């Protein structure tokens, strides 16, 4: 029997730990053919999350596993730790706050049995979310999809069921600044998206504020885009071009109106423009090398082979 292991990052989720277990247990009561277990990752919670986990583990035994961090390292680190310590043939990533409804699991299993490597929940309504937040998220997706090699799906959440092979592939990307959404897209594989309505969190508050999200979006962008480094070359070249046009203009003026010569202002402006353009272009060239160093440093795999799916 194949085992589905559910990885749950938890940061101050004391009131959610046990209800999540109950919900998952309820869902699996109706699922045959698959065994299941939960792997909680306590991301340095400062409330009673760890105590809750200890209690749950002692009452539920093998169904519950947990890892506990020495401090709050962030959700990305918790996801990495969870995936790295997981052993199930299928791995699910799920938030602790029940915003990722366990009731979707049967449909995800169906997707995997159809031959997909990954089934993700895609939020179709943004009910209960501030307008500005949705607007920025839209902007973020359109920039990311145009500027980087990632293709992110609007509303695609981290709530995923993945095959072991896909999880192992994600772990092959060992970069420190992790952006899981991007990594999931980068490794390839076939993803089936299942739509769902936004759900309010069960208890507690969201750990994200607006600036946190902007920072997250920015780090995702930087992790996958070398475009900003390269854009500099174009900027520098344009300035050099403008200075060349300006130089021609000065020469023409000097020949046609020799009596107006003498201030030297034009020459100085031209020199400043030209030298500025050359310096910016050279910075761009250096940026190009830095971009390559950045790419090489990540030591990402050169290719990922797809072995098989769990198609039934
Ligand atoms: N989380 C975490 N570490 C953090 C912040 C959040 O492990 O530093 C977990 C959190 O416990 C939850 C999930 O990440 O299970 C999503 O967080 P949250 O519900 O605050 O985000 P939102 O649903 O508002 O995007
Ligand atoms: Mg949440």
In short:
The protein is an alpha/beta fold and 312 residues long. It contains 10 helices and 7 strands.
Could you describe the 3D structure shown?
The protein is an alpha/beta fold and 312 residues long. It has 2 domains: 2-123 and 156-210 and 305-311, Alpha-Beta Complex (Spore Coat Polysaccharide Biosynthesis Protein SpsA, Chain A), CATH 3.90.550; 227-298. The chain is 51% helix and 15% strand. It contains 10 helices and 7 strands. The chain has helices at residues 14-29, 49-60, 75-85, 105-113, 131-147, 164-172, 180-186, 210-224, 227-256, 265-297, and strands at 2-10, 34-42, 64-68, 90-93, 118-123, 156-163, 191-196. A 7-stranded mixed β-sheet has the order 3-2-1-4-6-5-7, with helices on both faces. Helix 2 links the parallel strand 2 (34-42) and strand 3. Helix 1 runs parallel beside helix 2. The chain is elongated, with a radius of gyration of 26 Å. The mean pLDDT is 90. The protein binds uridine-5'-diphosphate (UDP) and magnesium ion (MG).
Strand order of the largest sheet: 3-2-1-4-6-5-7
Whole-number mean pLDDT: 90
Q: Give the oligomeric state of the chains in this entry, treating copies of one chain as homo and distinct chains as hetero.
A: single chain
Structural class: alpha/beta
Q: Give the termini separation.
A: 14 Å
Comma- or semicolon-separated keywords:
elongated, alpha/beta, binds magnesium ion, binds uridine-5'-diphosphate, 10 helices, Spore Coat Polysaccharide Biosynthesis Protein SpsA, Chain A, 51% helix, 7 strands, 312 residues, seven-stranded mixed sheet
């Amino acid at each position: 029997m194949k085992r589905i292991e559910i990885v749950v990052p938890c940061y101050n989720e004391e009131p959610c730990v046990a209800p999540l277990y109950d919900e998952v247990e309820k869902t699996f009561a109706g699922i045959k053919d698959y065994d299941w277990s939960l792997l909680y990752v306590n991301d340095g919670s400062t409330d009673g999350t760890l105590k809750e986990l200890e209690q749950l583990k002692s009452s539920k035994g093998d169904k519950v596993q947990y890892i506990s961090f020495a401090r709050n390292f962030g959700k990305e680190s918790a996801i990495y730790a969870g995936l790295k310590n997981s052993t199930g043939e299928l791995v699910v990533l799920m938030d602790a706050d029940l915003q990722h409804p366990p009731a979707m699991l049967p449909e995800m299993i169906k997707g995997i049995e159809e031959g997909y490597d990954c089934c993700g929940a895609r939020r179709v309504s943004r009910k209960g979310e501030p307008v500005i937040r949705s607007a920025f998220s839209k902007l973020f997706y359109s920039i990311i999809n145009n500027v980087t090699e990632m293709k992110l799906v609007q509303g695609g959440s981290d709530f995923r069921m993945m095959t072991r092979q896909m999880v192992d592939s994600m772990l092959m990307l060992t970069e420190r600044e992790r952006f899981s959404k991007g990594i999931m897209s980068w490794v390839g594989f076939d993803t089936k998206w299942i739509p769902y309505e936004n759900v309010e969190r069960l208890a507690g508050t969201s750990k994200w504020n607006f600036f946190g999200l902007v920072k997250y979006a920015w780090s995702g962008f930087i992790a996958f885009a070398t475009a900003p480094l390269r854009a500099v070359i174009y900027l520098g070249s344009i300035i050099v071009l403008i200075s060349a046009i300006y130089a021609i203009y000065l020469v023409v003026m000097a020949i046609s109106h020799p009596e107006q010569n003498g201030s030297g202002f034009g020459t100085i402006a031209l020199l400043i423009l030209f030298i500025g353009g050359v310096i910016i272009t050279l910075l761009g060239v250096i940026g190009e090398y830095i971009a390559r160093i950045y790419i090489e440093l990540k030591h990402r795999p050169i290719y990922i082979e797809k072995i098989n799916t769990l198609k039934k």
